[in-house]
Design goal:
This is Helix-turn-helix protein. Pfam families: HTH_3. InterPro entries: Cro/C1-type_HTH (IPR001387), Lambda_DNA-bd_dom_sf (IPR010982). This protein is an all-alpha fold and 122 residues long. It folds into 2 domains: 74 residues, lambda repressor-like DNA-binding domains (434 Repressor (Amino-terminal Domain), Orthogonal Bundle), CATH 1.10.260.40; 31 residues. Helix content is 71%, strand content 0%. It is built from 8 helices and no strands. α6 crosses α7. The two termini are 29 Å apart. 13% of the residues are buried.
Length: 122
């Protein structure tokens, strides 16, 4: 399956994937059909975090799909992805690491090495 390039398209694709009608999906998400339409057509791009979580649950998104919806949300809203914000806020050491990386102007290559090191530890 190819994935959407924007938040609204992703919602539409998931709606089709799960064979849901707009009214049915709106009811499941506890939003109006008008709001759902605005989300799908890119007229509204910043649902609150609770709605984002309901979408993840209703669509039963796997880890890859959760990352996709969060990244599309981030791209559309201009806000840092909620899953990342939650993690950074819960770990003081992450803030320290990010500030250290910022201080030395860490490159993409530096970050790739860091990611590989973490993966190899597991």
């Amino acid at each position: 399956m190819t994935y959407a390039t924007d938040f609204g398209q992703f919602i539409s694709e998931q709606k089709r994937k799960h064979s849901l009608q707009s009214k049915e999906l709106a009811d499941m998400l506890n939003i109006s059909m008008g709001y759902l339409s605005q989300l799908e057509h890119g007229k509204r791009v910043c649902p609150d975090q609770e709605l984002l979580k309901r979408m993840i649950d209703v669509f039963n998104l796997n880890e890859e799909e959760r990352c996709i919806i969060y990244d599309l949300y981030e791209k559309a809203s201009g806000k840092l992805s909620p899953d990342i914000v939650e993690y950074v806020q819960s770990k003081d050491i992450v803030k320290k690491a990010l500030r250290a990386a910022k201080a030395v102007n860490a490159t993409d290559s530096d970050w790739e090495m860091f990611i590989e090191a973490i993966k190899n530890e597991q």
